[in-house]
Amino acid sequence: MIQSTVDPALSLYQLLDPEVLADPYPLFKRLREADPVHWDSFLHAWVVTRYEDVINVMLKCSADRTPSPQQLEAMGMLAELQPISQVMVKQMLFMDAPDHTRLRALCATAFTPARVAALKGHIQEIADRLLDRVLDKGRMDVIADFANPLPAIVTAELFGVPVEDHQDLKDWSTDFAEMLGNFQHNPDRARRALRATENMIGYFQKAMRDQENNPRPGLVQSLMNAEVDGSRLTEEEIVANLIVTMVGGQETTTNLIGNGLVSLLKNPDQLELLKNDSSIVQSAIEELLRYESPSQHTARLAPEDMMLGGKKIQKRQAVIAVFAAANRDPERFPDPDKLDLRRTDNRHVAFAWGAHYCFGAPLARMEGQIAFETMLRRLPNMKLEPQELVWRENLGLRGLKSLFITFDRRN
Ligand code: HEM
Q1: Domain boundaries, the chain
Q2: 30-43: pLDDT as tens digits
Q3: Residues 410, 180: Cα–Cα separation, whole Å
Q4: Mean pLDDT of the chain
Q5: Which of 281-291 are b and which e, b meaning 16 or more Cβ less than 10 Å from the residue's Cβ?
Q6: Is the pTM of this model over 0.90?
Q7: SS3 of 339, please?
Q8: What share of the chain in percent tops pLDDT 90?
Q9: How many angstroms does the Cα of residue 211 sit away from the middle of ligand 1?
Q10: Atom of ligand 1 nearest to the CA of 104
């Protein structure tokens, strides 16, 4: 028997209320204090909010959680979701060892620190080019003008596909991310995700065919050639993992830029600090990731009956690890609701923990540093324009729909 109270005030479903979504941290605090390993009977899943317990979930639970096409059929789920599931079961994000170890090792040969370092100059150029377009206006929507296109263009460069395609990559990625970030089913959203999946499969299959004759440096080519201990990736595996890298790399980085900037603008002393001392940019990015985590939670399955925080979790029950709550756990981070860009000992879980620790973290950190340094240097006197901040309905990937700011116009 599951021992827990049914308390609607503690359900993660509260996030569907726009007011709670705008500031979910009081809900996370209530959960951490009242019932840190909470059976959410509305979601039919355990919700885990303390830092130490979240790490335990990441280390002990199974990532193999996405239903296979056959399971979907047996569950009587929409047949139309099956192509999405066919892709997801081949993505490293939804696998355990040894399958995960093999796939990640193969992909790692293609995504080396040298490749990330080589992108640095390009990222700076892209950031400058995007800001050049708005300097004369004295105002911009940071999301549409900068935080969306920057990671989309970087992704196209990283993959070695035409940069002109970046708007398609962005649109497909947003639609697919809706499947990753949400726990409530919405048929219209499912159809959009399906269209995006079909488009991405077709796009990457064609990119691979083109590159057989005209190789271009980038991840597509590297994954086609990757080999570890005589093992190579199949075409389906390449496509599935290009998709997860593309989606994982865009939505989250957009959110780091948007969430980070709004946090700085609401804490002008911290904005000044960073403006006057760029040597703290690295710790600043870590703090912005902790404070408003772009990826708020993930899901796992209990591999067997297990105890967590004094509760008995049964084999195959779903467990939601709330990174954003763990990152505000006062047991781990003193004064957790304070944005402190000089915070030391800041080992947050914004990039997760353990075997699935974010594959793109070095690239995300570099993009974040360049984005903030460039905005602070080139947009003097940035201010929030009066507006109602609207958060995207994606409950897992936290980000703003738009973010209007003003700054001193270029003379
Ligand atoms: C601020 C930016 C980013 C954040 C906050 C972030 C966060 C995360 C998190 C929390 C996970 C683990 C999810 C889970 O275990 O359920 C993850 C995994 C992953 N991320 Fe990121 N990510 C970011 C940027 C990127 C970038 C730039 C890329 C690639 C270009 C990327 C590619 C991936 C991939 C492929 C995985 C799956 C790794 C695995 O399953 O072994 N991410 N990311």
Answers
A1: 8-406
A2: 999 999 999 999 88
A3: 41
A4: 92
A5: bebbbbbbbbb
A6: yes
A7: coil
A8: 77
A9: 26
A10: 41
